[in-house]
Design goal:
Radius of gyration: 22 Å
Order of helices and strands: EHHEEHEEEEHEEEEHEEEEH
Strand content: 25-35%
Distance between the termini: 32 Å
Strand order of the largest sheet: 1-8-2-3-4-5-6-7
Number of strands: 15
Helix content: 10-25%
Structural class: alpha+beta
Largest sheet: 8 strands, mixed
Length: about 260
């Protein structure tokens, strides 16, 4: 699994065990191990691994968002006492409740509360299953799995390709600009050139976006192929302007040379 940043904010096993005792809950061993090794963050841009939170669902208890029949692992009143340990970016909750052995899956787009279990699987394997259940099958190679730690260090820039240069994302053969008469390439071509020049440590590409990950600034560049113009840079600012800072300067210079401001 690729780590977007080297700056992890891990959680000690002892601290999590104290919460278990205080709240009379059982946290999955694989979840404890993951927080101990990696800390909080977002897995593959889709699922958030979070520190146990027993306040998150209290506001939902007064609304009838889910069914609470004999098949439900919790009652409506118990919902307020559930402890959230993970979420998807679309608002699904993964929670635990005192006395319930399984994990509780509270879906955003369904009224049916489900039981989930990790068994002997790793936390990464559990997340893969939940992501597939929520978003459909994925064909990710082992090397394309990535984790973005939450460390309060990340900054971002949103850049746009010059409107005179923006074209639809078609064949990578270049298109003549009607006003300037010069030949320009689309965003996918620019991303490929960025790969050749800047040498990313990891690339994840699909029809809608391209992610280029760089160790040198603990971040990545996202090329929005679907929109055809947007480039987003997510990075961590270092105290020293040497190393990571100079690399970011070179990256932004590359973008300016391609009319991305």
């Amino acid at each position: 699994m690729y780590l977007v940043s080297n700056h992890l904010q891990t959680v000690t096993r002892q601290k999590l065990h104290l919460l278990e005792q205080e709240w009379n809950i059982i946290l999955p061993p694989s979840y404890i191990q993951f927080l101990e090794q990696y800390g909080q963050g977002t897995y593959c841009g889709l699922l958030n691994v979070e520190y146990p939170d027993r306040e998150r669902l209290r506001e939902f208890a007064e609304y009838e968002l889910w069914e609470h029949d004999e098949q439900s692992p919790i009652t409506r009143e118990q919902l307020a006492e559930c402890i959230v340990i993970a979420t998807t970016i679309d608002g699904d909750f993964v929670a635990v409740y005192p006395g319930v052995e399984s994990l509780i899956w509270l879906p955003r787009h369904s009224e049916i509360i489900e039981r989930r279990s990790c068994g002997d699987q790793s936390w990464v394997e559990c997340m893969e299953q939940w992501i597939e259940a929520a978003y459909g099958p994925r064909d990710l190679a082992e090397t394309e799995r990535y984790f973005e730690p939450w460390n309060n260090r990340q900054q971002h820039l949103f850049l746009m390709l010059d409107t005179q240069k923006a074209i639809s994302n078609g064949p990578s053969v270049g298109t003549e600009d009607a006003e300037s008469g010069s030949t320009v390439n689309n965003l996918a071509d620019i991303a490929r050139e960025c790969t050749a020049v800047m040498k990313p440590d990891l690339i994840i590409d699909n029809a809608y976006s391209g992610l280029h990950f760089f160790r040198q600034f603990n971040g990545y560049v996202r090329f929005n192929y679907a929109y055809g113009r947007e480039v987003a840079v997510f990075y961590e600012k270092e105290e020293s302007q040497e190393g990571n800072g100079s690399f970011l300067v070179r990256l932004l210079q590359f973008m300016r040379e391609h009319d991305i401001q």
